[in-house]
Amino acid sequence: MVNTAQNVRVATTGAVSFAPIATTLPTDAVAALAAAFKDVGYIGPDGVTQAIETDVTDITAWQNGDTVRKVQTSHDVTFQLVMLETNALSLQIYYADATATASAVKVTGAQSPHNVVVIDVLDDKHSIRIVLPDAQVTERGEIVYQNEEATGYDITLTAYPDADGVKAYIYLDDGEA
Is the pLDDT of residue 71 over 80? Predict the structure, then answer.
């Protein structure tokens, strides 16, 4: 096996952008996004965490109790991040309030809307673009107001399958073209 240090990626910066659900999806790692996409601004120092979780049920044999098969019963793809900027978009996303501005928010029991979300990850000339064709905020972390850290809006996005059954499209570009 050959070890190639140039193939090691570090997410040194990036962006997270939201657009309405019907927005045309990007199909590569570097092309400009459609005008409908809005960048939420600074993301917390932990960046974006992707998780893929599956649940399985064991099928066991009557004769000896051996597990003879596993059947997948669920599959979730989620992305967790903390939006650091207090702006109209981050407040709309966190509070599920489409009318929120940078100076006023209504906290209700509204369910978060579905959006197209693009996560751009950059490492020098290398790019990774994660496109979620149908994503929704399904968890919100606590907001802490204190004098030693930025106020952050912690969200978890759940990616749902599109018409082709795809929850996330991941495009990579090595910057060599």
Answer: yes
- The DSSP code sequence of 28-65 is SSSSPPPTT-EE---B-TT--EEEEEEEEEEEE-TTT-
User: Binning pLDDT at 50, 70 and 90, where does residue 177 land?
Assistant: low
Beta bridge partners of 158: 78, 136
Torsion of CA 87, 22, 51, 8, to 10 degrees: -90
Name which of 2-6, 28-32, 64-68, 158-162 the model is least confident about.
2-6
Q: Quickly count helices (H) and strands (E) in the chain.
A: 1, 8
**pTM: predicted TM-score of the whole model, two decimal places:** 0.93
**How far is Cα of residue 145 from the mean position of the Cα atoms in its chain?**
24
- Residue identified by tokens 């930025």 is 150
Q: Contact at 8 Å (CB) between 122 and 11? A: yes
